[in-house]
Amino acid sequence: MPLLYGDDGTKTESETTYHECPMHPEIAASFAGTCPKCGMTLVPASPEVPTPMPYTCPMHDEIVAAWAASCPLCGMTLLRSDGAAEAEDGESIPHSHGTGDSIEWEDDMVEINRQTNTSNMIWQLIDRETGAKNGDISWKFTVGDRVKIRLLNEMGSDHPMPHPFHVHGAGRFLVLSKDGVTETNLAWKDTVLLLAGQTVDILLEVTNPGLWMAHCHIAEHNQSGMMFSFDVAPRATVS
Prior knowledge:
Blueprint: E1 19-20, E2 28-29, E3 43-44, E4 55-56, E5 64-65, H1 110-115, E6 140-142, E7 146-152, E8 163-168, E9 171-178, E10 181-182, E11 191-194, E12 199-206, E13 210-216, H2 219-222, E14 227-233
């Protein structure tokens, strides 16, 4: 019976910590996957100079590869901190997902995603100043307010992925910066996409009184908790 956890003192081929493609030595991983260039199975190897494997699973540090493969343990796409997607010699390495500003899923966990629902998956928006989460967040604004808000899509979450953040009805906002880089295209928006690990600063111009809502614009996420309501009071009139 195979061990789920622990080490019985033997190491099988599948447990070898370095595998590479027989045809493309620049393709290497800590697991026996398949080469994204030719489809061949990666085989155990002990080269004098191992290929760098900078891509790591956000959930499993021991899973690394030379390209943005999928983690064999959880299915998540391996991430590289500097966002690069090229081999050391400059040749492009195929990868599952781009690093551009586009809406996309960060994993290939198809079966798990199909099984998630509001009873077994809770997505969270957290106000770090108060610790309040989702519906417990209590923001109060007044028409005419201009509020700077910092949005952080933390990599320490159980399932890091892009989230389109939407402010509903209260007004409009400008994206001021992304990861500290000033945004030069100052266009009014009501939704901004936060990539995994990204920090975005926005300036909300509050224009409409009432009870409004902020939420992730992915329906499965806001229905599983990733939303909250906030009050906007009318501006007092001077008689």
